[in-house]
Amino acid sequence: MILTVARKEFREIIRDGRIKWSALILAVMLVAALGTAGQRFADISTERAAAQEVVNMQFAAQGEKNPHAAAHYGLYAFKPVTPLSFFDTGISSYTGVSVWLEAHKQNDAEGEPARDATAIARFGELTAAFTLQMLLPLLVILLAFPSFAGEREAGTLRQVLSMEVSPVQLLFGKALGAATALSLFIGPILILGLVGLAFAPGGFGYLGHGFVLVIVYVIYALIFLFLTLAVSANVKSAQAALVVMVGFWAISSFVFPRAASDASRLLYPTPTAVSFQANIDEAMQSGLNGVSPNTVVQQRQEQTLALYKVETVEELPINFQGMIFDLQEKLGNEVFDKFYGDLYAIFDQQTGLHQMFSVGSPRMAMQLASMELSGTALTQHLEFTGQAEQYRRDLIADMNRDITFNSEAGRADYRAGPELWASIEPFEYKPASLATLLSRLGPSFMVMFLWLALSIVAGVLAVRKVKVTLG
Amino acid sequence: MRGFGSVFVQEWVILKHNSAWWATLGLLLVLTVLAALNGAARTDQMAGMGQGLNQGEMLTQMALKDSVMRWEETKEGPAPSVASPGALGLSVLSHYTVLPPTPLAALSIGQTDVQPTYYKVTAHPALNFLNDAEIQNPLNVLAGSFDVAFVIVFLLPIFIVALTFDLMSKEKERGVLGLVLAHGVSKTAFILAKGAARAVLIFSLLLLVGLAAVILTEPDLSNGAMWLRFGLWFLVVALYAFFWFALALFVNSLNKPSVTNGVILANLWLIFVVVIPALVNVAATTIFPAPSRVELTTEMREATEVADQESAESREAFFFDHPEMVGGDANADQFFLQVLATDSAVERAIEPLMEEFGTQAQNRQDVVDLLQYVSPAIMAQNALNAVSGTGTERFSDFSEQVLAFHEKWRGFFTSRIVKGSQMTAAEFDQIPTYDHKSLSTEELLDSTLIPAAGLAFFVLFLGVWSARRYAFYPAV
Questions:
Q1: A307: closest CA of chain B, how far (Å)
Q2: B20 in contact with A at a CB cutoff of 8 Å?
Q3: Which residue does chain B place closest to A149, by CA atoms?
Q4: Residue B321 clears pLDDT 80, i.e. is over it
Q5: B255 — contact with chain A (CB < 8 Å)?
Q6: A135 and B270 in contact by Cβ < 8 A?
Q7: What is the dihedral angle through the alpha carbons of B364, B369, B372, B377, rounded to the nearest 10 degrees?
């Protein structure tokens, strides 16, 4: 029986052609977005890889130098891109793409692409994710809004219900019909996208992510489908169903994210760049716990002299200057850990607020999940900067160790050679595994399943009521 | 125009008793007031921070001047290290150049969260401070701001469409139209009266909302420049609202069922507000892409390394660029000279790339300026940003003024470093300060009235076209 209903619904949608235009817009935008995504991935991944290679070579080709001078010279870590990061660019336009790794200092990523964009970019970037998040729900709404309300106006709803069909069968039949019509438009494009992903350089490893993405977007579409059917069964006219659903879509998709962003700014303000830097400078000068770095160095010197039972640092078997550098570096790192830790804790609170708002907006839950799976969420950006910072600390420690053990006290003219630079492993960003991503997505998945369950229940309740009121 | 008056009055009576109407208008009012308050909170925060920055550095400068002054009085011991222009200009001092918010800044956040509203100018190459950014959660920047411009550009059309999509189709579906025409009311009068009743309501609401926003957010209500901006704001908002009105009227003239009108208008909203802006953005960035920031990074690094290695040569090149400075004291502080030489070598190396950034950005903006006429939403957003002083043009004007100031600031210290002279206490008062020159009224009018004219054209075009169609609109 469900199949009969589905077949009728499907045929009607195709004949009616009311979604002809929106389906066409969606298809054109999806194809354009996926096409440019492929091109941009090819361009940018080559560019970043080449730049990383140049920087690594520059570091290796420094010639004879004091290791501390090499540490000051440092190198850059470039954020690598994955094929999926162009399916959903996420926050990529608003974060830097490279971090300078140098002695004494934890730098922020720089070179946000948004700085080069015009104001129009703020309407939204043309990506497949944006298209699916914004247009897919509207298409579903236009597809399904007259399902019940239209039949009620035409008077056929009473007839159908007086036959052997149960209301629930009717609901699922209509859902199946609409879903079939929908997948006719979107299915081929998504399959093409997955094939493209499989053949993109390095894309094969992201097929799993791609499949999960497809499933999540299908759930997203189903939420709007059942919601629309529920509303359609509940209201008097098709027109009212359309107004209610378009209103809900607009408010939840457009107003909620902005409201979340401004509320999080007001509730959990981030420090200004100026005060953030001033606090770090202050802590660097006077120490985190009131003991100044100079005192700590002094104490360490006395301890070391006592340990080796000598009077002056010149008598030590090692170059004490290297130990001082290392100690200063560690004290600095504690300062960075404290202030960046505090800052990221605020970011966490802000993101938490976005997650709370997503309870009222399927699009926000969808967006958070989509970014995470595409590798363009804030968590992944912080993972990149975190790994780059760890690499910096290891690099500087290596340089200081070389000074400590391979040179003599008081010899500032010590020079290390290419062997030392070559002994440094190049920076490589290790992205989190799919399993880790999925475990992080708990809240977003929960919100989406909740919405799906609620919309199905609402649909079932609404169609049951139809029978009662007409009977 | 027989019957205009009676239909108009009757329409008012109907609307007065329509609770859905009042709920919709109430929601619009609440959203706008919230957005205005939110915008004001952000503008206040920014203005306060700008002042704090300059106060801090004035205190530093005064303290330094005092130490030099004390030494000048006694001349005991060596001069304080801050009397060296090299130490001052290349490591101690910096100057925050702050972009002051214009009146009505609270109504559109615009590019404020992406572009810097202040720079920390030093005597080093401009690239060192041009890239500095304010700390922000990128997730918040991605979502955008809930400001009045957003309510106007994105939400107002939905409200207008929801209130007008069945303007004529409903009357026809209920058989009212035929009945009314049978009573001798002219078709034109009927349409105009119905439209006018709604238009009067919505425009009074917009005026009310705008005034409420101004009163809530503007500290100085006697400011004439602010009221000029408010006039422009209302003009743009009214034209944009008229556009959606005209569009709804036009769709009604197609003589389709109400539901079909709703579907068509939802699609048109999508096309004008979401699809076209995204496509225009892709067009602009594909035709004139920004040069690679990654390349800039590696280029700069290469140049620094080369400059360090060939320090002696680059010092000569520096004097080649600045022949007026060769005659200075040969005993100038070698270290700071070295720094200057490296700086200038790096600057010269990346200059072509920097120029490319500038021209490509200008080209991109030109494309957007041209293509904005395809979508009233883009025109409205651009004009509203311009009214609030938060558009791309104002930020690029700001960075140009800062770059000019940077030359002045750097020149002040460079000339003294090269001469090898010491700073006297009196000279501390001559250290340049940044004074932002606002865009002229003509420029403001240009950047708002041109998009407004585009909007007016859309309104006229749709109006005339609909009028022609309604002449043949069947009554039953």
A1: 39
A2: no
A3: B259
A4: no
A5: no
A6: yes
A7: 100
Q: Kindly list the residues from chain B whose CB atom is less than 8 angstroms away from the CB atom of residue A264.
A: 137, 140
Q: Are strands A75-78 and A105-106 parallel, antiparallel or unpaired?
A: unpaired
Which residue of chain B is at minimal alpha-carbon distance from A90? B142
Question: Could you tell me if B267 and A28 are in contact, meaning their C-beta atoms sit under 8 angstroms apart?
Answer: no
Confidence of residue B322 (pLDDT cuts 50, 70, 90): low
Flag whether residue A273 sits within 8 Å of chain B, measured between CB atoms.
yes
Instruction: Give percent above pLDDT 70 in chain A.
Output: 99
**Residue A65: DSSP 8-state:** B
Chain B positions touching A126 (Cβ under 8 A) are 278-279, 281-282
Of B134, B137, B279, the CB nearest to A347: B137
Most confident of A309-313, A426-430, B190-194, B303-307: A426-430
Confirm or reject contact between A207 and chain B (CB < 8 A).
no
Q: CB distance from B407 to chain A under 8 Å?
A: no
Indicate the pLDDT class of residue B1, thresholds 50, 70 and 90.
Answer: low
Nearest CA among A428, A424, A392 for reference residue A57: A424
Q: Closest to A94 (Cβ–Cβ): which among B142, B282, B382?
A: B142
CA–CA separation, B426 and A359 (whole Å): 63
Task: Please state, in angstroms and rounded to a whole number, the distance separating the CA atoms of residues B96 and B56.
Answer: 10
Where would I find the H helices in A235-272? Answer: 238-250, 256-267
Is some CB atom of chain A closer than 8 A to the CB atom of B199?
no
pLDDT in tens, A65-107: 889 888 988 899 999 998 899 999 999 999 999 999 999 999 9
**What tokens were used for A73?**
């010279």
Residue A83's region, left for phi above 0, alpha for psi from -120 to 50, else beta, is alpha
Q: Which of B211, B260, B259, B262 is nearest to B234 (CA)?
A: B211
| Closest to A132 (Cα-Cα) out of A37, A229, A25 | A25
| Amino acid, res. B214 | V
For the stretch A249-285, pLDDT in tens is 999 999 999 999 999 999 999 999 989 999 999 999 8
DSSP A268: S
